[in-house]
Amino acid sequence: MKRPNVLLLSAAAALLTLPLAQAQGMAGMDHSTMNMSQMPAMDLSGMKKLQGKAFDRAFMSAMIPHHQAAVDMARAVLPVSKDATVKAWANAVIKDQNREINLMTAWLKANGGTDAAMAKMMAGSMQGMASMVKSSKTPDVAFVQGMIPHHASAVDMASLALQKGSHATVLKLARDIVKAQAQEMYDYRVWLGKRGL
């Protein structure tokens, strides 16, 4: 099986996220009282210690609640959004990430089940993200600003999966996440830039 070019994908993701100052992630944070720009880098040290099937299960188990947080943010912005582009992005997040959640859930069922500790850690680190959008006076901006570090942390995890994963489904999903979410981060940055943000 031919593996994706990890260095090229990682370099592309790094270039797209450079304006964010540093990789911004969510591990162990309560987001209800903070601005997305204050979030520190996500701790991937536990995942970095794993290899092969154990890594694959940990990655898929962590990515499900990570994706669910994006879906929740998208659902929070839709009823209050005043921007057609943001509405389109939110609908795309719901569609694409729910599809990937279903894929990951089915894969885990067939490959040893969920890594409960990894899923719990990630679910805990995602708390409060949708409430940041709901409580914002500018929910469209809050959604777009929030999705950038959220996507950046997904790209970080997916880039690690391209280095350490072993199953073809995991590798393809990781490649797809890097490709799609790096492009979306770029689009979000352009949208914010046009608004002087």
TrEMBL record:
Keywords: Signal. Residues 23-108, 140-195 form the DUF305 domain. It comes from the Bacteria. Coiled coil: none annotated. Residues 1-23 form the signal peptide. PANTHER family: SLL0788 PROTEIN. This is DUF305 domain-containing protein. The lineage of its organism: Bacteria, Thermotogati, Deinococcota, Deinococci, Deinococcales.
